[in-house]
Amino acid sequence: MLLKHLEGKTAKPILIGTWSAAAWAIRFYEKNGYRVLSRPEIERLLRRYWSIPERQIETSVVLAKSDQPL
After folding, report:
1. pTM for the predicted model, two decimal places
2. pLDDT tens across 12-65, in order?
3. What is the C-alpha separation between 68 and 48, in angstroms, rounded?
4. Which residues, including other chains, have CB under 8 Å from residue 6's CB and lie 6 or more apart?
5. For residue 28, what are the CA distances in angstroms to 9, 25, 47, 52, 57?
6. Got the DSSP string for 15-70?
7. Which of 2, 4, 53, 63 could form a disulfide with 16 if both were Cys (CB 3.0 to 4.6 A apart)?
């Protein structure tokens, strides 16, 4: 699986950003050990690592591997 391959290539946390309405994508990542972060964490990380408009920040989520510290 591509996701497992990518996870094995880095010791750094992997952050996944997607639309909050993309329930199918969120379920996929949750089934693979990721969790949706809290709203404050989401906003902080989106502003730090993504260049997106405020409206997109409001309608997005960020997921991270459950066992990795951020």
Report:
1. 0.90
2. 899 999 999 999 999 999 999 999 999 999 999 999 999 999 999 999 999 999
3. 18
4. 14
5. 20, 5, 24, 23, 21
6. EEEEETT-HHHHHHHHHTTEEEPPHHHHHHHHHHH----HHHHHTEEEEEETT---
7. 63
